[in-house]
Amino acid sequence: MSTTRTRGILTAAAAIVLTAAAIGGTAAAQAAGNNDQQGGGDAGSHHVTGTALSEAFSGVDRATAWQQTGKLKLNFPTYHTEGIAFSEDHIFLSAVQILEPTTKLPATQDGFDRTPGKGVGHLFVMDNAGNLQKDIILGEGDMYHPGGIDFDGTNVWVPVAQYRPNSSAIVYRVDARSLEVHKQFEVKDHFGGIVMDKQTGRLVGNTWGSRRFAEWDLHGRQLASWQNPNYFIDYQDCQYVTNSKMLCGGITNLPQATQSGGAGASYELGGMAMIDLKSRSVLRDVPFQQWSTAGHAATRNPFKMTADGDHLTMRVAPDNGDEGNGTEILSYEATVTATE
User: Fold this and answer.
1) How far is CA 216 from CA 90, 105, 227, 252, in A?
2) What is the pTM of this model?
3) What's the burial of 13, exposed, middle or buried (CB within 10 Å: 0-12/13-18/19+)?
4) What's 185-247 look like in SS3?
5) Considering its fold, how many domains does the chain have in total?
6) Does 158 fall in a domain?
7) Does residue 340 fall inside a structural domain?
8) CA atoms of 92 and 149, how far apart (whole Å)
9) DSSP line for 9-69
10) Calpha distance 226→128 (Å, rounded)
């Protein structure tokens, strides 16, 4: 497996040029009809109007009959999977390779509750059949943990943070065609997910446990910040949905009664949520309790969804490379009745 180590620090002049290119790509995507694209070849693909996903998701509830319709086994080391995105030509999967786990500290030191640990951040690039084409290494120093990712029609956006809360992160932009990597900016705090709001041309990220959101321009200037009003799940991987919305999947670990699972037992509650980026409110959140080969809630980490009319397709990759049957991209489908 060939490994490409791509790092770069942009000069101010280059940042202006690259930002203009990113804005141009976003504008081109909007001019093409504001379509939400999450492709996938053998993993499944749809090319649909931008409002279809928002409308269809309004019909998802606890009684929605999801059926698993596909399972794509990845035959290369994937480590701990984080986020997934689909372009016309590629599947992108972010993952963290842990070399030294973080360790909880007996007391907070310098604002941290744990040691930084050591690791390597990966953005795997695959063809539509799941064959590895490139392994892009992302991160610097203690920032080695890629999070949830988003494809805006031109670029894949990847946050790479320290593996601990209240830390720092780098936001990368990866050209989905050339696979060139650009370090867009650094931010304070652990940001574990990001989307590009095509309507505003701004980036929105969520922190550790998705307890806080922040909004930036493409130079990294923070324009807004707000607390997550919802405690249902922690968002792990999100995607932009037309008209300034974002759809997220995730989990939370909840305790079980001792008689159910033994002392200290917990279970994973999976779910998904549609968030309005204008009102900053949760429009709809729904549990999702189907399970991976290794026994994880299917929405544990990588998550994306498409709609074709009232038919929804979800793609997830919850298992790490060393669990169960290794990392598999699972496809689930359901037909709903929209309420919007």
Assistant:
1) 27, 32, 15, 27
2) 0.86
3) exposed
4) EEEECCEEEEEEECCCCEEEEEEHHHCEEEEECCCCCEEEEEECCCCCCEEEEEEEECCCEEE
5) 1
6) yes
7) no
8) 9
9) ---HHHHHHHHHHHHHHHHHHHHTT--EEE--GGG--EEE-HHHHHHHHTT--TT---EEE
10) 37
Question: At 182, which helix (H) or strand (E)?
Answer: strand 181-188
29: CB partners within 8 A, 6+ apart = 35, 152, 153, 154, 198
3-state secondary structure of 117: coil
Question: 156 is in which domain, residue-wise?
Answer: 3-335
The token duo for 202 is: 């701004």
With beta carbons less than 8 A apart as the criterion, state whether 304 and 193 touch. Answer: no
Q: How many residues does the chain have?
A: 340
Half-sphere exposure of residue 207: CA atoms within 13 angstroms, side-chain side:
18
Q: Is the residue at 286 inside a domain?
A: yes
Residue 153 DSSP symbol: S
The CATH number of whichever domain residue 282 belongs to comes to: 2.120.10
- Residue with tokens 């040691």, as numbered in its chain: 115
In a domain, 110, yes or no: yes
Give how far Cα 144 sits from Cα of 10, 85, 100, 147, 161, Å: 19, 19, 12, 10, 6
Cβ-based neighbours of 164, under 8 Å, separated by 6 or more: 102, 112, 113, 114, 115, 116, 117, 190, 208
What is the full per-residue pLDDT of the chain (340 aa) written as tens digits?
Answer: 443 434 333 333 333 333 444 444 443 333 333 334 443 334 444 444 457 999 999 999 999 999 999 999 999 999 999 999 999 999 999 999 999 999 999 999 999 999 999 999 999 999 999 999 999 999 999 999 999 999 999 999 999 999 999 999 999 999 999 999 999 999 999 999 999 999 999 999 999 999 999 999 999 999 999 999 999 999 999 999 999 999 999 999 999 888 887 888 899 999 999 999 999 999 999 999 999 999 999 999 999 999 999 999 999 999 999 999 999 999 999 999 988 6
